Amino acid sequence: MNQTRTFLLFALLAVAYLLFQQWEQDYGPHPVAPSTASSTSTNSNSAPGAAPAIANGGETGTAQLVTVTTDVLRLTIDTRGGSIVRSELLKYPVTPRTKKDPNPAPIRLLDDGDVDYFAAQSGLVSADGAAPDHRAIFQAAQSSYELASGQDALNIELTWTDASGVKVIKRYTVHRGSYVIDLDQQIDNGSSKTWDGNAYRQLQRVDRPAPVYSNFLQRISDQSRYGFFGAVWYSPEQKFNKLQFDKFEKEPLQTNAVTGGWVAMMQQYFLGAWIPPAKEADTFSSAVVNEANGKPRYVIRSVGPQISVAPGQQASSTAQLYMGPKLPDQLAVIAPGLDLSIDYGMLKIFAEPLHWILAQLDKLTGNWGVSIILLVLLINLTTFKLTNAQFESANKMRKLKPRIDALKERYGDDRQKMQQAMMELYKKEKVNPAAGCFPLLITIPIFYGLYYVLRDSVELRQAPFFGWIHDLSAADPYFVLPVLYTIVMLAQQWLMPVQPGMDPAQQKMMKFMPLMFAVIFLFFPSGLVLYYAVNGLCRLLQQWWMMRRADAAPPAKAAA
Predict the structure, then answer these.
(1) Which H/E stretch holds residue 284?
(2) pLDDT at residue 62, rounded to an integer
(3) Which string of b and e fits 59-70 if b means at least 16 CB within 10 Å?
(4) In this structure, are residues 93 and 105 in contact, taking their beta carbons and an 8 Å threshold?
(5) What is the rounded CA–CA span in Å between residue 146 and residue 71?
(6) What does DSSP assign to residue 153?
(7) What is the model's pLDDT at position 216?
(8) How far apart are CA 220 and CA 308, in angstroms?
(9) Which of 50, 148, 219, 515 gives the lowest tally of CB atoms within 10 Å of its CB?
(10) What residue stretches are annotated with the Membrane insertase YidC N-terminal domain (predicted)?
């Protein structure tokens, strides 16, 4: 296969991939609002796993909002249930920092607004005793907390007391430089009988609203449309699992006891996850909550084992809440399998090494764009001999053109004899027409692997390069890199004219190939186009050098 067919196959695969993603977005399954008939078994009053039903009491009283600020997080805790209802990631702005806007608003992951509702809830349930669920009113000692300079950790305590003598202290602990929040639900049994119940933690959110775009380019280049948005969970036995919102009713989650697992809500770049203690056996379940505004909320829940507290005794249930970016090195340390939330799909085997190499290069350069360029150089050095074989084969095919033209005249329309004669000629001259396929086996996995890295790696979100490129994970706003790559492709065509054996239809396709790639790369992340522009330039230089060597060799003799 010659260079032209290699490009053609690559283009067709890229176009097919884009069409598939667009079809999934436009015509794929979407969440359906739960029917009234099913709301009874899946509403917020249903039992979390095997635990007793959540009590309806404890809803009277006035709730307040408590603000907690660290160096990386700003949390808002609602004393109704002691739920975390807002979380702002102070290191991750919504839009890139510019001279006009040096301090843009931070990403809000948890949100108590109706449109983007997402909350981290927790509570206790008991079949025959008083217990505060995620709607009970707690009391807070103060309305704001801030991690002071030099302070490594900060405790926030919320208190709930029942007339029977049962007292619950919900204690959150935040840490400097960390997106992990510790939760301790402490039960002090001041009643006259043993308290039996369960602790639960859950994440509740709505589906993302339909995005609004100002133009077609913005719509097609929005990579967040293609990433997974929904619930995920992990167990050592069944590993990483996704639960799409439209599957909550059709295939509800209900597990047996899971030790060493976690539940989460995931989106592009960011993650909210409840992580039970490593040795605790919890049950995981899902539910759908019907809201008055008709917009369903989706719940993924972890319920702990039964807790028994004798009169006058004390017991605690602990867990961790991760609320932050999907950073692989940090996630792998926090909990087993948590780094799998960086969803590289089937190309994980290629994407993870590429991400690791880019991360190491970024430590040296401090610029992800420069790291991409260095990655191109490393790959080209590694595949130099393989690429040389491709160009040598193409050059030999070009030099054989007079002899192939002579065979066409000799055999006319007898295609079978023509093919046999060409195969004999290739064998005699030691030419391998399939040599161009081997670099493709490396090129395509790298292309798609790097695409997933650029789409799902939070380190590359809003990562600037130079000049006009302020975000390597977004499309080039001025199309400079797609145009540059098109020029490189045209130069490659000029250096390597039409190959022998190419039919007229292929020749026409080849003329339009640069324009086809220009259109495709308009919508791709600029970091990916940067990779291919630099890679194309390296291959162009290598091709020019190989042709100079080939032209210095004696020309092939024409067939008699």
Answers:
(1) strand 281-289
(2) 76
(3) eeeebeebebbb
(4) yes
(5) 9
(6) E
(7) 64
(8) 55
(9) 148
(10) 66-357
